UniProtKB/TrEMBL annotation:
<dbReference type="InterPro" id="IPR036249">
    <property type="entry name" value="Thioredoxin-like_sf"/>
</dbReference>
<feature type="domain" description="GST N-terminal">
    <location>
        <begin position="12"/>
        <end position="92"/>
    </location>
</feature>
<dbReference type="Pfam" id="PF00462">
    <property type="entry name" value="Glutaredoxin"/>
</dbReference>
<dbReference type="InterPro" id="IPR002109">
    <property type="entry name" value="Glutaredoxin"/>
</dbReference>
<dbReference type="InterPro" id="IPR004045">
    <property type="entry name" value="Glutathione_S-Trfase_N"/>
</dbReference>
<protein>
    <recommendedName>
        <fullName>GST N-terminal domain-containing protein</fullName>
    </recommendedName>
</protein>
Length: 92
């Protein structure tokens, strides 16, 4: 599964599972960039075949409802949906 990387300050492994057409996903990316956080992201809706299946399985592991955005921090904390306060609390 090939993720896009955004450079910034390393505050732990931060991965954003998003949809390319999702306004809340875009707001989450903008917030991460405002905070200057290094992160990886993937637009699940742009994937196909085995890669898409793998991405969906990854999201479901953290968010069984399979909703977006799903932000996973250090493989232990999950923020589902756009939650500016929680993102700022953990990564700010």
């Amino acid at each position: 599964m090939l993720m896009e990387h955004v450079d910034g300050e390393n505050k732990g492994k931060t991965v954003l599972f998003a949809l390319s057409t999702c306004g809340w996903c875009k707001k989450t990316r903008i917030l991460l960039e405002e905070l200057g956080v290094e992160y990886d992201y993937i637009y699940v809706d742009l994937l196909q075949g085995a890669e898409r299946k793998e991405a969906i399985e990854n999201v479901e592991k953290w968010n069984p409802k399979l909703s977006f955005p799903t932000l996973v921090i250090n493989d232990e904390e999950t923020i589902v949906g756009f939650n500016e306060d929680k993102v700022r609390e953990i990564l700010g």
